[in-house]
Every structure is written in C-alpha cells, then in structure tokens.
Specification:
Order of helices and strands: EHHEEH
Number of helices: 3
Distance between the termini: 22 Å
Shape: globular
CATH class: Mainly Alpha
CATH architecture: Orthogonal Bundle
Strand content: 5-15%
CATH superfamily: Winged helix-like DNA-binding domain superfamily/Winged helix DNA-binding domain
Number of strands: 3
Low-confidence stretches: none
CATH topology: Arc Repressor Mutant, subunit A
Largest sheet: 3 strands, antiparallel
Strand order of the largest sheet: 1-3-2
Mean pLDDT: 78
Helix content: 40-55%
Radius of gyration: 11 Å
Structural class: alpha+beta
C-alpha cells in the first residue's frame, strides 16, 4: 500500500498505518492524537481491546504522517 492510498477515506488502526509507513505504532498514535485535535484526521469514538480505534486520514494528514515518519529515527 502506498502513502497515497492512506487518504482513501477508509478507517485504519495505528498498527496498520505503522506497518504501511514502517514506523513504530506509538509514534503514529501520538501523531494521530495531535492531528485529531487539529482536525487533520478523524477517529472513531468507541473502541475496546477487541476492536482497536480506527483513524481516517485526510490528504493533508498523509503529508503530515510522511513528515513524522521521515523525521522520527
């Protein structure tokens, strides 16, 4: 899956995004939490251990996630 495919409007978990971007899931979660406050991504409100929280990324969010992955060692 490419970075462009992340902005297709489908919800994905932080683990799925981390696998795609080859980054640690905690780094992705922290970035998405910050971006959610800024309106760059949306997250489902209800989740539990069996169904992890899913995030929907906007095109602008794709760019920011790419920046997070390239800056974070």
């Amino acid at each position: 899956m490419t970075l462009r495919a992340l902005g297709d409007g489908r919800p994905r978990t932080a683990e799925d995004l981390a696998r795609t971007l080859e980054a640690h899931p905690d780094v992705i979660r922290r970035a998405l939490k910050k971006y959610k406050r800024n309106g760059v991504c949306a997250a489902q409100d209800t989740y539990n251990r069996d169904h992890p929280r899913a995030f929907t990324i906007t095109p602008h969010g794709r760019h920011l996630l790419k920046h997070v992955v390239t800056v974070t060692p």
